[in-house]
Amino acid sequence: MEFSVIGGDMRTVRLAELLKADGHEVRCFGLEKGGSRVLTNEASLGKALRGAGYVILPLPMGGGEELNAPLSDAPISVRELAEAIPPEATVLAGKPEGVFAELARARGLCVRDYFAREELTVRNAASTAEGAVEILMRELPVTLLGARILVIGFGRIGKLLSLRLRALGADVTASARKCADMAWIEALGLRGADTRRLADAVTGKTAVVNTVPAMVLDREALTGVPDGCFLLDLASKPGGIDLEAARELGLRAVRALALPGKAAPETAGAAIRDTLYQMIKESDENELECSQWKG
Amino acid sequence: MEFSVIGGDMRTVRLAELLKADGHEVRCFGLEKGGSRVLTNEASLGKALRGAGYVILPLPMGGGEELNAPLSDAPISVRELAEAIPPEATVLAGKPEGVFAELARARGLCVRDYFAREELTVRNAASTAEGAVEILMRELPVTLLGARILVIGFGRIGKLLSLRLRALGADVTASARKCADMAWIEALGLRGADTRRLADAVTGKTAVVNTVPAMVLDREALTGVPDGCFLLDLASKPGGIDLEAARELGLRAVRALALPGKAAPETAGAAIRDTLYQMIKESDENELECSQWKG
Amino acid sequence: MEFSVIGGDMRTVRLAELLKADGHEVRCFGLEKGGSRVLTNEASLGKALRGAGYVILPLPMGGGEELNAPLSDAPISVRELAEAIPPEATVLAGKPEGVFAELARARGLCVRDYFAREELTVRNAASTAEGAVEILMRELPVTLLGARILVIGFGRIGKLLSLRLRALGADVTASARKCADMAWIEALGLRGADTRRLADAVTGKTAVVNTVPAMVLDREALTGVPDGCFLLDLASKPGGIDLEAARELGLRAVRALALPGKAAPETAGAAIRDTLYQMIKESDENELECSQWKG
Amino acid sequence: MEFSVIGGDMRTVRLAELLKADGHEVRCFGLEKGGSRVLTNEASLGKALRGAGYVILPLPMGGGEELNAPLSDAPISVRELAEAIPPEATVLAGKPEGVFAELARARGLCVRDYFAREELTVRNAASTAEGAVEILMRELPVTLLGARILVIGFGRIGKLLSLRLRALGADVTASARKCADMAWIEALGLRGADTRRLADAVTGKTAVVNTVPAMVLDREALTGVPDGCFLLDLASKPGGIDLEAARELGLRAVRALALPGKAAPETAGAAIRDTLYQMIKESDENELECSQWKG
After folding, report:
1. Pairing between β-strand B171-176 and β-strand B54-56 as defined by DSSP bridges
2. Option in A168, A263, A267 nearest D164 (CB)
3. Inter-helix orientation angle C156-167/B156-167, to 10°
4. Average pLDDT value for residue range B267-276
5. How far apart are CA D243 and CA C171, in angstroms?
6. Gyration radius of chain B over CA positions
7. What is the DSSP letter of D236?
8. What is the mean pLDDT of chain D?
9. D138 at the A interface (CB within 8 A)?
10. What is the rounded average pLDDT of the residues B133-152?
11. Do domains C2-116+264-286 and C123-260 have the same CATH topology?
12. Does the distance separating the beta carbons of C137 and B126 come in below 8 Å?
């Protein structure tokens, strides 16, 4: 297969390397600073896109005029990109929206969103959970063994993180809102708390990790957090912990985003590759119409 | 609160005992053979239902003319029951359907299905998983430590069973159909297989446990199962393993249903009680209309 | 190799079958009731021992006049046995002591104790731990998930049992006497208690399992055990729980011995086989003198 | 109680803080650079030692002329120290040996070695295991989930590290020499290898961690290690991996020592404190003679 890989971060670099290692033709653009020894970056967007069967765009690709391309020597215009993509190519993009989505629709391009794939979300959740464990180990002056940790939210990340922390000997409390999630917390042998009433749950904790994308630890709730407790917010902006209030209260508080790419870029790249292969395979098998539009 | 408990199995007996221990008024009918020391059975359906705020019916209550009441001295007519329930009572039933559902609708009774509650399903899945572990320990001439076990299906029971078996030192392969489930299998550190292609997966296994309610191990697939392998089908009838074919092939094969009530009746009773309390609480808080009809 | 297998229980039957399956010549005596389809029992002790390179005696072989041979049609005299063993054979016995040990020494027989091998003890401990989990699952009306269990003693069985129970979601307290064991309890993320002060530790427990071969729960200590608590004594006689006092107090109490052979005879047989092979290999390699006498 | 704390690293600082928080009188010397807000350092060794009931020396205290005191503004002479300790004080030292041990013996001082305490060794092993997990997470470009890791040696650290890695979803092989250790590896559900034959075991590994204080991965053995594999040596110098050879072969290799103090100084300080309390308690209870000399 022939892939054009345009923009993206270290995950994209690893992804492109893996595609090449699998024997595919891979043309890159905008990964100059990635330091890859096996990839070569094309001189122009046009060259990179020529004859592409599949065009891979970043995760997230960005909704504005510029492509998300932190490793590129120069900014990449989303308009220019949308113009240059061969009409018969399939575009595999992470969260296509905004400017690019509109232009692609206008041109009738086939665009698929790999970020919407549940299997990628789950794999990213596993990597995020492990990345969070690493941060806690680095930041805490005590071992996780014996530490008392509150994990707020029992979605994918909350589940996988709670299980890992417990396996390392931490005393884990997981909070949730729904009865069914509470039943899962119990079924997995964890201690439970109600996300709507965290005042008691934070008492005596060594660390608190939030996974809920809504303000769950505001200034008032933070007053109950014990001195020396470390706060880690994994929720995307604006996040679920009032970091400013936390610092004013003398609490160490950190927001960590995009952990899969930072903590384990190779695993992240492989997860995207597998997802793309699966999407291509399903598309071939089912001859599905290209209709999964986002934005 | 005033509860009338009509029919049911040992779980219902434990449930009624727990409600009584919590200080509620509890009137029973049809639990004579349950051997409870604290419950007394009323002389008639009418007496048992008089003044009831909540009428608790079995799980499952049964869709025909007779109530599911294996511990009752005499059969209980669903028509008689539907007639005798006070109109202002709330009926909490496990899978209300068929004859009773129709009659109750005709009379305008408020009927809620506690079996449809996700939290109860999850708690039952945990008990089922543990019950399955007990059966495997009892039936296998080897320890689970080191045993090679295939778990077919990665829903609630598949997940919780796979984790327990792995924790006991078994070499667990879990099978699934969906990519997202495969990602969960991987995220939990388990070995995976495709439920659509089990021929390879059964090779060399010490035991195979099915959780999928569809024929996954038919006569042909069973020919690949090694001698001495033990087969356990947890899926409700008609199940997912051709038990007859298995026996003809000389394989030990067992179907185990309703494990929560059999393996841990007290836990099962407590799970139903908590679910009923939650349903009552939600109903009080939200003044929801009574509209969750099944069947 | 040529093995004579004399007396023993189902573990010995499986052991003999496994040796045969490995291609060795195996002559049995005293396993008539074992129901094996692949073994044949010789007509006399003499025939069974003729030309034997290795004579395998039961675990434990018994210290009196009669060999431990519950599956034999007739009693086997230890004196007759000691006389009939070819002088050049190596005797592999489980706990050789008493009458046989004296006679063997007098005859100058080479006798080795496989029960003294640490690797077999550890493997048996793992099987005992799993067998204990099975008993708890069978006996308790609640799931191990959420059950509060005290494990007395943190030797091999205590360690392996505590880890398994915790993995199944039980709330486990392990007791020990030595500081170092307490540190292990902590390092493995378990709750700890002092074996010398169990009064507090038994409070509120769903079940108590003893692994210590000394009276740790006497009549007085038992008065603190809550109603409905299940007691399991894994220590060899006289055990560590006063079972009589327990029953007088209305507590369910069970002593379970020889679990590896009962719960998983194939695993137990394989563990002995591997141990015997290892002993034979070491003996060949090192040309050690035969001097490891017990009794 | 009255403690004099002389020299040491951050663990000693935390230890001294904890002793003070417990209400004891604590005089420090040589912890100036420790940055503690609650401790004050005495102006002279003499002042720090005046009236001391217990003198706490570092872990390890160092066998030469100078005390191990990296946080001290000036070097501390072991001779001066030995002279200044009040004769009735009990000296609690980590690995007392060499110059100090001789002088103390000559003066008839009571010196006890807290490093020789098994409970401290176990607690340190747990912290070391967790520290090793942190290093692996930081250094590997992939997640531990799914990584193939070889742990060489199945002593305390090997056991606790293997269990943690497996709990995080790694595919763990543990190597040992003794049959009994191999049985433990199996009983804990891990994959095993023979430390004497690592050539096969290193194949395909993502990382190799050594815990054995003897050369187990020499230049020749390293040639079998796959490209990209990360090597971590936890064994004290000279260690068990030929780091120089590893680097020449293009392998990333790191030696990590004293992890408890680096990764979790508060946990390390608390572990020492608990050990000292226990030693003091035992000494009071048993009126043991002071005879546990090392060196």
Report:
1. unpaired
2. A168
3. 170
4. 97
5. 44
6. 21
7. P
8. 94
9. yes
10. 98
11. yes
12. no
C167/B contact by beta carbon, under 8 A:
yes
C-chain residues near B145 (CB < 8 A): 126-127, 130, 267
Confidence bin at A236 (pLDDT 50/70/90)? confident
Distance from CA of B140 to the nearest CA of C (A): 7
The matching CATH number, chosen from 1.10.10.10, 3.30.710.10, 3.40.50.720, 3.40.50.11270, for C123-260 is 3.40.50.720
Distance between CA atoms of residues C38 and A145, nearest Å: 51
Q: How far is C243 from chain D (nearest CA, A)?
A: 30
Contacts of A137 in chain D (CB under 8 A): 130-131, 133-134, 137, 263
Class of domain A123-261 (CATH, top level): alpha beta
pLDDT at C237: 84
Report how many Cβ contacts below 8 Å link chain C to chain D.
Answer: 54
- Which amino acid is located at B103 in the chain? L
Chains that touch A (3 or more CB pairs under 8 A): B, C, D
Domain C2-116+264-286 CATH (choose: 3.90.950.20, 3.40.50.720, 3.90.550.10, 1.10.3720.10):
3.40.50.720
pLDDT the model gives residue D284: 76
Q: How many CB pairs under 8 A join B and D?
A: 22
Q: Confirm if D239 and D231 have CB atoms less than 8 A apart.
A: no
CATH architecture of B120-260: 3-Layer(aba) Sandwich (3.40)
Beta bridge partners of C66: C77
Token pair recorded at residue A97 = 């929206």
What are the residue boundaries of the structural domains of chain A, listed by start?
2-116+264-286, 123-261
**Taking CA atoms, what residue in C is nearest to A168?**
C189
Return the exposure string of C164-191: e unless at least 16 CB atoms fall within 10 Å of the residue's CB, then b. Answer: bbbbbbbbbbbbbeebbbbbbbbbbbbb
List the single residue in A with minimal CA-CA distance to B164.
A188
Residue with token string 């080191």: B146
Contact A182 B117 (CB under 8 A): no
Q: What is the pLDDT of residue D286?
A: 53
| Cβ <8 Å between D168 and A133 | yes
Q: What are the tokens at A143?
A: 């071992």
User: In 3D, which of D133, D152, D153 has the Cα closest to residue D143?
Assistant: D133
Beta strands in chain C (DSSP E): 2-6, 25-29, 54-56, 90-93, 110-113, 148-152, 171-176, 191-194, 207-210, 230-233, 252-255
**Can you identify the CATH homologous superfamily of domain D124-260?**
NAD(P)-binding Rossmann-like Domain (3.40.50.720)
Per-residue pLDDT of chain D (295 residues; tens, 9 = 90+): 999 999 999 999 999 999 999 999 999 999 999 999 999 999 999 999 999 999 999 998 988 999 999 999 999 999 999 999 999 999 999 999 999 999 999 999 999 999 999 999 999 999 999 999 999 999 999 999 999 999 999 999 999 999 999 999 999 999 999 999 999 999 999 999 999 999 999 999 999 999 999 999 999 999 999 999 999 999 988 899 999 999 999 999 999 999 999 999 999 999 999 999 999 998 876 544 443 433 3
Quote the pLDDT of residue B292: 40
The one-character DSSP state at D137 is: H
**Nearest in space to A127 (alpha carbons), one of B155, B163, B186, B176:** B186
- Contact yes or no for B95/B60 (Cβ under 8 A): yes
Cross-chain residue pair D267–A145, CB shorter than 8 Å: yes
Report residue A294 as tokens.
């986002």
Whole-model pTM: value is 0.93
ipTM value of the model? 0.92
Amino acid at C86: P
Report the interhelical angle of B156-167 vs B118-139 (nearest 10°). Answer: 40
Distance CA D228, CA D208 (A): 11
